[in-house]
Amino acid sequence: MGGTHRDRIRFNVGGRIFETTATTLANAGRNSFFGAIFDDNWDVPSDGGGLSQSQELFIDRNPDCFAVLLDLLRTGDLNIPLNVSEKSLYREASFYGILDHVRAAKWGQFDGNRLRLSRSVSGRAPGDGTAIRAGPDGGCCVAHGSIVHVYDWMLEEHPPLNLDHQRVNDVGFIDSENIVITACERLGTLDGGMGLFSSTTGELRYKFEVNHSNSPENKDRDKGTKKGFTAGALCLNPDDYRIFSSCRGRSNEYGIGVWDQVTGKQMDFFYESPGWSLGDADKLQWLGGVYNCLLVATLFPRKDNCYISLLDFRIRDMVWSWSDIGGPLTLTIVDEKRVRDAVAMEEANSICVVNENEDLGFMDLRMMGSRSSSTIRWSSRIRFMKGLMPDEPCYPKLAVHGGQLFSSMNDCISVFCGSDWVLTSRLKRGYGGSICDFSIGGDRLFALHSEENVFDIWEAPPPPIII
Which residue, 188, 245, 271, 347, is most buried by CB atoms nearer than 10 A? Predict the structure, then answer.
């Protein structure tokens, strides 16, 4: 039996009466609180859907916040009066299942050329931070020494994650509730390695263990023995719930470990070959689509030379590689010309690298399978650098998001677009020191400065409301 079509709906929220339409409430979406009131056709179900005999639905919640959220569903615009705190509004929006609508009204879809500095947050610990990582919902986390500070999308800090003097090497969000942390091993213990933590409480949910029973050196011994290890660069594959991390064992057991995100069980281990570097990797990046490979980059100054490779775990082989060993950079020993970061750009079929001068270089990935090193095609950006060098310059970083290329250099971030990667905008503020790391996610860009762990939040303004 079908429901009753009734476009006008009345709510009694905390004693205040609101009247709206089913059309307006439908803007909240099927998975919202309001979607549960109606049937699939957004009609009141035959049992009344919770409506009283007076044709009102009573909700024992904050009426002031409800008024703001109802106006958001009507107009798409978010206007918060002075008598309503943002924290209360976000709590109510979460109850009604329309938090995404609030976020979309506060900042727009990510576009590097439209970003504006939203705010800056001062960290708790002085000195250089290790890393900053964006969360999927607009929050972030900052690693400093052995502590990871976690912030939700409202930039309220959760209890910090303290690894008891084990230095954090990398960190990543599985989702808004779970964080993976890699850390250095402490000698004489099995501490270190990698663990899954609650982002809200800091609770350690489980540790990722590794054994080397299938390695060439341990084929007939130590079968199933748990080994201590240092976990480094981290990469999460959202397509099949795998976690990758560079690993260094005590007995020269260097390589890339693979674990299941759900169970925490080790799935594979790719051992580095003599003369190459995997276990000391600075960066891991998963390439999906036609590639289905893992980018592994070990860069100067962690190593005297740079090693970049693509690993195919389906055939357990290195299918593409590049190194500056024996090249002109090795002979000239000019540090500022060495590769400092690398990022794969799947749509462009290339890998981008950057040196100390923010010169961008590109290597063609279409040579995959040849096992021959590609040549870097450099594109000088030094003409864009103006002003004085900061007192504490940081190494440049690269990221790709939404078809745009981002490169940090000293105290600003450059945005490059188009097939020729033309410089289109720069993100910079007046203080904070050099940018030691940045991350993009949840439609935000987070930039961590070396001075006092200050980090900036850059957002694109929401689109204009068309009346």
Answer: 245
pLDDT in tens, 266-292: 999 999 998 899 999 999 999 988 899
Read off the amino acid at residue 15: G
Q: 103 and 440 in contact (C-beta within 8 Å)?
A: no
Block residue for tokens 């357990």: 316
Residues 462 and 108 sit within 8 Å (Cβ to Cβ)? yes
Q: Give tens-digit pLDDT for 431-442.
A: 778 899 999 998
d(CA 40, CA 391): 62
98 against 451, higher pLDDT: 98
Give pLDDT tens digits for 184-238: 887 656 667 899 999 999 999 989 988 776 554 554 444 455 677 899 999 998 8
- Average pLDDT, rounded, for the chain: 84
Starting at the earlier edge strand, list the strands of the sheet with 435-441: 116-121, 455-459, 444-449, 435-441
Note whether 20 and 11 are within 8 A (CB). Answer: yes
The token duo for 320 is 């593409």
293 is written with which tokens? 């490979």
Q: Measuring CA to CA, which residue among 352, 248, 366 is closest to residue 308?
A: 352
